[in-house]
Specification:
mainly alpha
Length: 140
């Protein structure tokens, strides 16, 4: 392997692994969760620039800081880490993004129903692997 995905001699995580496991770091999750209502408020008020800034800048900064400075190995070894290693696929990430954009559109259009739908889509994407894991188990 070469480039940023190569493991170092010390066994450090690859960039791909960091991109995966940083998603469940408490600081990253807190940033995402706290920024959502703030940015939706600005979108609701039709304040595009503040909405975009609060929706994207803090999560991007949190991602960069967590991926650069956090020890993600314990998260990788955790049950949640094993879950996302199996189930956080590109289509699931795309569904999370789509749900987020539905919520943003709902705020812009001042539609509580669309905001709720967007949040349900995001939650369903996060939980989709859990549902698949439970339905894939053989009956006892």
């Amino acid at each position: 392997m070469s480039g940023p995905a190569r493991k170092s001699a010390g066994g450090a995580m690859t960039l791909r692994e960091k991109a995966l496991y940083h998603q469940i770091h408490p600081a990253k999750l807190a940033t995402d969760i706290l920024c959502e209502p703030v940015s939706l408020y600005f979108f609701w008020r039709q304040d595009l620039w503040w909405g975009l800034a609060t929706h994207f800048l803090p999560p991007i900064l949190a991602s960069a800081l967590v991926m650069r400075f956090a020890d993600l190995e314990p998260l990788k070894a955790s049950p949640l880490g094993r879950y996302i290693a199996r189930r956080m696929t590109r289509p699931v990430e795309a569904a999370r993004l789509a749900g987020d954009l539905v919520a943003v559109a709902g705020a812009w259009l001042r539609s509580w129903a669309l905001i709720g739908l967007g949040l349900v889509i995001v939650a369903a994407a996060w939980l989709s692997g859990w549902v698949l894991d439970r339905t894939a188990r053989p009956a006892a």
